[in-house]
Amino acid sequence: MGDVLKDLTSGTVGGAAQLIVGHPFDTIKVKLQSQPVPPPGQPPKYAGAIDAVKQTLAAEGPRGLYKGMGAPLATVAAFNAVLFSVRGQMEALLRSEPGVPLTVNQQIICGAGAGVAVSILACPTELIKCRLQAQSALADSASAGVAVKYGGPLDVARQVLRSEGGVRGLFKGLVPTLAREVPGNAVMFGVYEAVKQYLAGGTDTSGLGRGSLIVAGGLAGGSFWFSVYPTDVVKSVIQVDDYKNPKFSGSIDAFRKIVASEGVKGLYKGFGPAMARSVPANAACFLAYEVTRSSLG
């Protein structure tokens, strides 16, 4: 089996593990990010992450925490296969000779390159996921009269293609998606390699056990969101914005309006669930990837 196929297979397994562990946290993150600013004197729909979980369970049951999972599940194979395959190919280009470990800086470059590649696939997937996750919060807002209700991932895609500019509508939010994925993956893979080398006491990390891989993967995932979270908030509000009556003209406008109306803390709505998700989800992803990759040779 060639290296590309091994990375494709291992990335798929890792992505599935990441999605199963992390999706409920992601649902709460998006709900908090996309809830409308309440009128003066009125409390927000969700008082915080725990309240969002309680309201979701009360209104939709446990299935509500996995709403929007169909779109990423359908593409998780392609997404993580692309991420780890592009990273693997860039490693091969940067490696001086076969088997030589890469430096942390070289892994940062590999992560950034992989981030560019996955952004193209991530943007429409994220748009569909965010629309489904956010619609219950948006339905109770002042714009409920124009809020669109979706029956599922395919229904979101159909409505966007039909009434929001065709294929271009599915790539709404591409700029903030790139601004999230490129630096985020650069930091993530850099931290992952740095932690592995620290735990191994040198550049040869092949002997690390599963516990060490879990620690490295968890810290790497946390570093991704810590470094790019405000960009993710901008991406989410852009992607759930109403097409006919938009609140934001673009990413910069969204950033300015969020800060103007909510302060800097508005850029960190849902940060707790995102961080709570990132550590176990990415630990599961990297562990599943490494174990699968090792088993394939």
TrEMBL record:
<dbReference type="InterPro" id="IPR023395">
    <property type="entry name" value="MCP_dom_sf"/>
</dbReference>
<dbReference type="InterPro" id="IPR050567">
    <property type="entry name" value="Mitochondrial_Carrier"/>
</dbReference>
<feature type="repeat" description="Solcar">
    <location>
        <begin position="105"/>
        <end position="198"/>
    </location>
</feature>
<keyword id="KW-0472">Membrane</keyword>
<keyword id="KW-0496">Mitochondrion</keyword>
<feature type="repeat" description="Solcar">
    <location>
        <begin position="208"/>
        <end position="295"/>
    </location>
</feature>
<keyword id="KW-0813">Transport</keyword>
<keyword id="KW-1133">Transmembrane helix</keyword>
<dbReference type="InterPro" id="IPR018108">
    <property type="entry name" value="MCP_transmembrane"/>
</dbReference>
<dbReference type="GO" id="GO:1990575">
    <property type="term" value="P:mitochondrial L-ornithine transmembrane transport"/>
</dbReference>
<feature type="repeat" description="Solcar">
    <location>
        <begin position="2"/>
        <end position="93"/>
    </location>
</feature>
<dbReference type="GO" id="GO:0000064">
    <property type="term" value="F:L-ornithine transmembrane transporter activity"/>
</dbReference>
<protein>
    <submittedName>
        <fullName>Mitochondrial substrate/solute carrier</fullName>
    </submittedName>
</protein>
<dbReference type="GO" id="GO:0031966">
    <property type="term" value="C:mitochondrial membrane"/>
</dbReference>
<comment type="similarity">
    <text>Belongs to the mitochondrial carrier (TC 2.A.29) family.</text>
</comment>
<dbReference type="Pfam" id="PF00153">
    <property type="entry name" value="Mito_carr"/>
</dbReference>
<keyword id="KW-0677">Repeat</keyword>
<keyword id="KW-0812">Transmembrane</keyword>
